[in-house]
């Protein structure tokens, strides 16, 4: 049952993404030949008002096929009416970005829904400092300070404080905070985990800061949800930075099989936890798809930017070849990550 839930969740994420492209294309007067969820043979298909709608065997993606300068057999189209290329440049930008916009909004909506039962929300505002806290005082962190940034890591949520401290562990921190309505910069702040008393009457390794918890009013939930979305986006960009720096091992990368396994595991324990993870996936997809890599939506947007700069379209055959090469590389990466997922699952 949990595997079926994972497949349906994947289908939902793909459906929302492709629906964004589809609606933007229709609103821009572009003819849509096919709207497909999944790849491979069609399980269910229906043609309606000139568009073939299909659910296909492999739920690993989707497509919205629009009329372009070439038809589906590769022949040049003489009548450009209703083609993607005939749409204005701003509308083509909108069509290309619409899938990512829909994924982001879906992720944001899911965060709001999963947070709705909450009665209280943690904040990055310092409530109190433990005795013998080493970085307090007039020139350090004080009660009532709102942490805004630690090193280059922005603090959207309380959880970001812990993430930033762990990322910079072993070195002094540069901390930006808000105190009495004004920004304050603290440099070379020494913070290390120490033994402090905990609420159970024992001791635990902590940084020695306690944070304010606010009542979960409707306004607080909406504000927290927006900050949570910002935190998710930062997690994606931070992950990309670590990849480019060579700080990510192959076992740290999760592909489709690994994600399906994670969704399945979370579905077994908590529906809210599963949907919160799906919110992260949706926002992750919205960012990753906008990367300027051929084969992704961002690759198409890159060619549109080039067209805007040089004031003429990039030759479609050249663009098609570059996009095809990008898709081949993405498919190769997909196979590698999927193989890695399977090996990791077998190994336990």
How would you characterize the overall build of this protein?
- The structure is a single chain.
- This protein has eight helices and ten strands.
- A hairpin with a 2-residue loop joins strand 6 (173-179) and strand 7.
- By secondary structure, it is an alpha+beta fold.
- The two termini are 21 Å apart.
- The protein has a four-stranded antiparallel beta sheet with strand order 5-4-6-7, covered by helices on one side. A two-stranded antiparallel sheet has the order 1-2. It has a two-stranded antiparallel sheet with strand order 3-10.
- The chain is elongated.
- It has helices at residues 2-27, 89-115, 158-167, 218-244, 256-269, 271-288, 297-310, 316-347, and strands at 32-48, 51-66, 120-129, 146-150, 153-154, 173-179, 182-189, 194-197, 203-206, 209-215.
- The model has no long low-confidence stretch (mean pLDDT 88).
List the helices and strands and how they pair.
Blueprint: H1 2-27, E1 32-48, E2 51-66, H2 89-115, E3 120-129, E4 146-150, E5 153-154, H3 158-167, E6 173-179, E7 182-189, E8 194-197, E9 203-206, E10 209-215, H4 218-244, H5 256-269, H6 271-288, H7 297-310, H8 316-347
Antiparallel strand pairs: 1-2, 3-10, 4-5, 4-6, 6-7, 8-9
């Amino acid at each position: 049952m949990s595997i079926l839930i994972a497949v349906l969740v994947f289908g939902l994420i793909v459906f929302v993404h492709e629906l964004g492209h589809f609606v933007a294309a229709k609103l821009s007067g572009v003819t849509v030949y096919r709207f497909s969820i999944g790849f491979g043979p069609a399980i269910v298909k229906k043609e309606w008002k000139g568009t073939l709608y299909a659910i296909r065997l492999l739920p690993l993606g989707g497509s919205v096929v629009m009329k372009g300068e070439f038809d589906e057999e590769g022949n040049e189209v003489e009548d450009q009416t209703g083609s993607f290329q005939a749409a204005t440049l701003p509308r083509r930008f909108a069509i290309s970005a619409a899938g990512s916009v829909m994924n982001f909004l879906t992720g944001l909506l899911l965060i709001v829904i999963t947070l709705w039962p909450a009665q209280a929300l943690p904040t990055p505002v310092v409530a109190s400092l433990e005795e013998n806290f080493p970085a307090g005082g007039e020139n350090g962190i004080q009660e009532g300070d709102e942490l805004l940034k630690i090193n280059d890591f922005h603090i959207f949520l309380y959880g970001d404080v812990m993430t930033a401290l762990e990322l910079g562990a072993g070195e002094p921190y540069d901390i930006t905070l808000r105190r009495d309505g004004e920004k304050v910069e603290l440099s070379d702040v020494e913070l290390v985990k120490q033994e402090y008393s905990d609420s159970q009457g024992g001791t635990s390794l902590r940084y020695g800061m306690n944070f304010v918890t606010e009542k979960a009013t409707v306004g607080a939930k909406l504000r927290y949800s927006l900050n949570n979305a910002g935190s998710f986006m930062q997690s994606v960009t931070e992950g990309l930075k670590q990849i480019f720096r060579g700080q990510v091992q192959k076992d740290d990368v999760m592909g489709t099989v690994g994600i399906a396994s994670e969704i399945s595991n979370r579905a077994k324990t908590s529906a809210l936890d599963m949907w919160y993870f799906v919110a992260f996936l949706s926002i992750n997809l919205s960012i990753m798809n906008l990367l300027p890599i051929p084969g992704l939506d961002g690759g198409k947007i890159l060619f549109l930017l080039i067209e805007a700069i040089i004031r003429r379209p990039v030759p479609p055959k050249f663009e098609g070849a570059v996009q095809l090469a990008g898709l081949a590389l993405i498919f190769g990466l997909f196979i590698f990550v999927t193989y890695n997922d399977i090996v990791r699952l077998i190994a336990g």
